[in-house]
Amino acid sequence: MTKAQVGDIVEFETPKGFAYAQFSNVHERFGELLRVLPGIYQTRREEFADLAQQNERFYVFYPLKAMIKEGLVKVVAHSDVPVQAKPFPLFKAAGWRDPQSGRVQDWWLWDGHREWRVGSLTEDLAALPIRAITGHDLLVRRIADGWHPRDVT
Length: 153
What we know:
- With 153 residues, this protein is an alpha+beta fold.
- It is 17% helix and 30% strand.
- It contains four helices and eight strands.
- The mean pLDDT is 94.
């Protein structure tokens, strides 16, 4: 099955167990947006309604339909996207990076339609998701490692 719908919950197998994400939105340029849900489970979950209502660990653009077709993830349930997760989230995007330190010196924010420069990030802005499409292997590694977008500075 390669047809995914907003609200679908997909399962990822990670080196540490099973993880889940919910397809929450679509952007015309970046594609499918997932809410990575909390927790890694040693056994497959059978009930997802309560999990889908929890706050996400982070958002990520991910080529969901292609990865379903490849058999790398599978749809395991469907649940309404929670009210608080329905609006398109605000993202951060790296601008100029210092060649010596490798640290980003110039950040931009993006709301799905327009972007604007903010320079440095406050603690709240540092927690925003990153505007980028993330491949399967990197996303699985990030989920297993407990990664969060605030780790990127």
